[in-house]
Amino acid sequence: MYGIPERCKPLSSAEEQVLLALWEKAPATRREVGQRLAGKGWADGTLLTFLGRLEAKGWVKVTREANRNVYTPAVTRRAYGVYCMRERLDTLFGGDLAAAVRALVSESGAGPSQLDQAEAVLEEMKARAEEYDSYDAFF
């Protein structure tokens, strides 16, 4: 669903933090992931536990190089972001994209420049949709 394989099980917030750190520069060893999480106070064993859970849930692939494990995300950050946003859209706004955008824009404090950027993205997506709709496979 939305680029997320069915085998991927839901993430806890701590698992999500580990995955976010891994996406910063993957593939990575446990030590490299730990460096990105510095300041969180996690012991090496805790991080290994979370990396093992991510592998078991299908979010991470593990390969062996020399005497260490190397971790690679099995899903792109963009796919995960779309999946999370779609879940929230469905849950909080009943799938109503216009209501979600209205709420976000009114409460986000976005300035004119950010709104112009968002408008440009929407216009681009609208043009793509119209282009696709006008495609004739039998032409």
Outline the fold blueprint:
Blueprint lengths: L12 H12 L3 E2 H7 L7 H13 L3 E6 L2 E6 L3 H17 L3 H12 L3 H22 L6
Antiparallel strand pairs: 1-3, 2-3
Helix pairs in contact: 1-2, 1-3, 2-3
Question: Would you summarize the structure shown here?
Answer:
With 139 residues, the chain is mainly alpha-helical. Helices cover 60% and strands 10% of the residues. It is built from 6 helices and 3 strands.
Commentary on this structure:
The chain has 139 residues and is mainly alpha-helical. The chain has six helices and three strands; from the N terminus they run αβααββααα. A three-stranded antiparallel beta sheet has the order 1-3-2. The protein has helices at residues 13-24, 30-36, 44-56, 77-93, 97-108, 112-133, and strands at residues 28-29, 60-65, 68-73. It starts with 12 loop residues before the first helix and ends in a 6-residue tail after the last helix.
> Which parts are unreliable, with pLDDT below 50 for 5 consecutive residues or more?
none
Order of helices and strands: HEHHEEHHH
Strand content: 5-15%
Residues in helices, as a percent range: 55-70%
Largest sheet: 3 strands, antiparallel
Quick check: average pLDDT?
88
Helix/strand-derived category reads mainly alpha
Distance between the termini: 32 Å
Strand order of the largest sheet: 1-3-2
Could you tell me the radius of gyration in angstroms?
20 Å
Number of strands: 3
Number of helices: 6
The global form is: elongated
List the keywords.
139 residues, mainly alpha, 3-stranded antiparallel β-sheet, 3 strands
